Amino acid sequence: MSGVYDDENFFQAYAQMPRSNLGLAGAGEWHQLKNLFPDLTGKKVLDLGCGYGWHCAYAAAHGAAEVVGIDASEKMIREAEKRNAAPSVTYCVCDLDNYDYPAETYDCVVSNLVLHYIADLDQVYRRVYRTLVPRGVFLFNIEHPTFTAGVCQQWIRDDAGHALYWPVDDYFSPGARETVFVGKRVVKQHHTLTQILMGLLNTGFLLQAVEEAVPSPEMVGLPEMADELRRPMMLLVRAQKCGDGRLRW
Fold first, then answer.
1. Which pLDDT does position 15 carry in this prediction?
2. Which of 14-28, 70-84, 177-191 shows the lowest per-residue confidence on average (mean pLDDT)?
3. Angstrom distance (rounded) from CA 104 to CA 140
4. Residue 248, SS3?
5. Which of these, 75, 133, 154, 235, has the minimum number of CB atoms within 10 Å of its CB?
6. φ/ψ (deg, to 5) at 63
7. Burial class, 112, CB count within 10 angstroms (exposed 0-12 / middle 13-18 / buried 19+)
8. Under 8 Å CB-to-CB from 212, ≥6 apart: which residues?
9. Sign of the C-alpha dihedral, residues 239, 242, 247, 248?
10. How far apart are CA 185 and CA 154, in angstroms?
11. Distance between CA atoms of 136 and 39, rounded to whole angstroms?
12. How many of the other CB atoms lie within 10 Å of CB of 38?
């Protein structure tokens, strides 16, 4: 995905999104996701696909001793360095496949709206498990399977443009799905709910929380949120590495 995010036209369109301008306050899922973070005081945090670095800055502001944010997009990393620099935060241009995931290093690994671009979730799970300390937390937000299985991820609309229903097709056929995001054709990866959750359990994680994102009371009345209670768009998951640190599969 680094290519599309480093495309200047795409990057400028992405910069106009509320979450780009307002940060965490502009993210519809933040009112839920923030409650899933563990205590970060004195902890080491890894952000996979950090984007503008909003979650890195949050971790630093909440006492994290060391924060590493990686992203495959150089444009995203440079923006993060401008917007969300902090003494405890280090940013690095690196994709999820090429990061070295040092063993038993991080207390918390977070990933926001990145894993639906990854074909092999199980490989990511194994790497995250390895790099977490025993009882470390893996917290992520992924596009919901109902959303990624949506046909072109678009509502079926009537002649007046009103959303009639959200079509779902080939749900049990995981893999690449092409859609349009901020005016650019992108390829995402559809994963079933079984793949997302059982993959964690088979790796050895303990599930601690599973939530489907809904707009906050403050956002639910906004025009762009009018249909967001009709189908889930995001899935929030918190999982913990087993206390003995052993892989179990």
1. 78
2. 14-28
3. 19
4. coil
5. 154
6. 95, 5
7. buried
8. 144, 232, 234, 235, 236
9. negative
10. 13
11. 11
12. 17
Structure tokens at 5: 């995010």
Amino acid at residue number 242: C
DSSP code for 108: E
DSSP lists the bridge partners of residue 188 as 177
Question: Which residue type occupies 122?
Answer: D
Tokens 């005016």 — which residue? 183
How far apart are the C-alpha atoms of 229 and 146, rounded to whole Å? 13
Give per-residue pLDDT as tens, 90-140. Answer: 999 999 999 999 999 999 999 999 999 999 999 999 999 999 999 999 999
Q: Which two tokens stand for residue 147?
A: 């959303």
Residue 108 dihedral angles phi and psi, to the nearest 5°:
-145, 130
Q: Long-range contacts for 60-69 (Cβ within 8 Å, ≥24 apart)?
A: 60/86, 60/87, 60/88, 60/89, 61/86, 62/37, 64/40, 64/88, 66/90, 68/44, 68/92, 68/106
